[in-house]
Write a structure and sequence with these properties.
The chain has 290 residues and is an all-alpha fold. The chain has 15 helices and no strands.
Length: 290
């Protein structure tokens, strides 16, 4: 908060909502994450789990005929589906509600800062925290097993990293939206856990139940594509596990061959999933009474 005040006093007044202000707020969010040791804790958690999967999970390469880094990529993608959304929601669910409870939100808005800039700045700062933790945590696992492997395996791993950060951005936006809708951080935390259960566990169980209820009859391709696009976790699965060397190691590779959701379309779907909740959070926050 002091850095924001100093920056505001030292520079001429700027229009609200400028990218300059957004970057100041993003840096403030990143520094607060460092002080709360979120970056260190998240990085160490991702690195520990990733190294465990890398050292223990690359053993099947001799029987499945896949590269060690390809197997690690599949393992880390499966870990990402469960862990990264949860970390993103825990990081963002109290961004607004928590500051409102602590009384710092009123102080922040006393400066010439637009409410939309606050939402975007918090999102970018938290995304930087999540991206740093993912890159360092997963990068350590990749270097442990695949430093001498070919460019193809590294390209698939880099694509998985980018998609993981994008998936984290989706759930950061959802967490911010939850934080703007309620006034208590405990309520926002409950909504965040509910969102994680819905998209990561319950949705796929319902999807599987629908497939079983169809009695072995094929569902219309358009319906399947729509149901997959309605869950960002499933979109991530198709994007990271549906093609390339990693795709042959999972059952979702067969599904990817019969869907109109190509990788570029899947990236656009994830971007929409991140943009819509973020825009709604900015809209709700702009009308919120403090």
């Amino acid at each position: 908060m002091v850095s924001l005040a100093t920056e505001t006093a030292a520079r001429p007044a700027r229009p609200r909502g400028t990218m300059h202000t957004v970057l100041i707020l993003a840096g403030k969010e990143l520094r607060e994450g460092l002080r709360n040791r979120w970056v260190l804790a998240t990085t160490l958690l991702l690195a520990a789990l990733a190294l465990t999967l890398a050292l223990l999970g690359s053993a099947p390469t001799g029987t499945v005929g896949a590269g060690r880094l390809d197997v690690v990529t599949v393992s880390l993608a499966s870990l990402t589906i469960f862990l990264v959304p949860l970390l993103a929601l825990l990081l963002s669910h109290d961004a607004i509600a928590g500051e409102a409870e602590r009384g710092t939100l009123l102080l922040l808005l006393a400066y010439p800062v637009g409410r939309g800039a606050v939402i975007l700045g918090k999102f970018l700062g938290q995304l930087a925290i999540l991206a740093f933790a993912t890159l360092c945590g997963y990068g350590a696992a990749a270097l442990a097993v695949g430093w001498s492997l070919g460019a193809g395996s590294w390209a698939a791993f880099a694509a998985m990293l980018g998609a993981s950060v994008l998936l984290g951005g989706v759930f950061l936006a959802l967490g911010l939206l939850a934080s703007t809708l309620v006034r208590e951080r405990t309520t926002a935390g409950g909504i965040a856990i509910g969102l994680w259960l819905l998209f990561v566990i319950l949705y796929d169980m319902a999807f599987l139940g629908l497939l079983v209820a169809s009695g072995g009859h094929s569902l219309p391709p358009l319906l399947v594509d729509t149901l997959l696009a309605l869950n960002p976790a499933d979109v991530y699965r198709l994007l990271t596990l549906g093609a390339g060397g990693a795709g042959g190691l999972t059952g979702i590779g067969a599904l990817a061959g019969h869907t109109a959701l190509t990788p570029p379309v899947l990236v656009v779907v994830l971007l929409v999933w991140a943009a819509v909740p973020l825009a709604l959070a900015a809209l709700v926050f702009s009308r919120r009474e403090l």
